[in-house]
Amino acid sequence: MVQVDQLSEYTAQFLNVRQFRDYAPNGLQVAGRSQVSKVVAGVSANRLLIEAAIEQQADAIVVHHGFFWKNEDPCLTGWRRERIRLLLQHDINLFAYHLPLDAHPEVGNNAQLALQMGWQTTAQTGEQGLLHLGTGPQCTLAELGEALQRRLQREPLLLGDPQQAVQRLAWCTGGAQGYFEDAIAAGVDAFITGEVSERMADMARESGVAFVSAGHYATEQYGVQALAAHWSAQFGVDCRFVAVPNPV
Ligand SMILES: [Zn+2]
């Protein structure tokens, strides 16, 4: 069992939360009961995850995608109200960690995706250290796609010549297609992220650097699990990951 305030302060330091400029608040977003012994972890704070936490009588939920995004309608109506109502009614704390949980060198989404895929990180660069550079096994783009599909259980979209060699890699999980230019400038063979935009196909063709869209949810399912495991080890709390798969 751990006090909410202690958990919150510990994690703020561990993830270096105060160093990040982000699109949503990092940390305790909705306060519930003051002590935590059971935690449900998930990628996004959606209704299915909240209902699973209620069913498991969790004291807290920890996610990568929480609430209160910049430029989002702040009014608590409709489906948005329902999420908050369920949390308040059941006195459940909601913790959310966005960019700090992408960038963290140990439990971060980028580090954990590399661990899953057997990629070696050589540098963290770009905006707030979010672009990871490194190397993967020597293979073709098609083989990289197969490896991602095996591990993430989702077919990736590959933009590039299936037979081109890809070993020098850049990656950033989630909706990081905007970093493709930085990856091209870094001189890699392929860039892997979650989501894709229309212009990426032309950029891949014209730069010769392959672009891989491996799924936003799929690439961001490991960081929060690693953070939950860290909480378990640190505080003895019972943490369970609840998958709410998302095809995007
Ligand atoms: Zn994300």
From TrEMBL:
GO cellular component: cytoplasm
Domain of life: Bacteria
Entry binding sites for a divalent metal cation 2: H64
Alphabetical list of InterPro entries matching this protein: DUF34/NIF3, DUF34/NIF3_sf
Keywords: Metal-binding
SUPFAM superfamilies tied to this protein: NIF3 (NGG1p interacting factor 3)-like
Gene3D superfamilies associated with the record: NIF3 (NGG1p interacting factor 3)-like
Binding site for a divalent metal cation 1: H65, D102, H216, E220
GO molecular function per UniProt: metal ion binding
Family label: Belongs to the GTP cyclohydrolase I type 2/NIF3 family.
UniProt-recorded name of the protein: Nif3-like dinuclear metal center hexameric protein
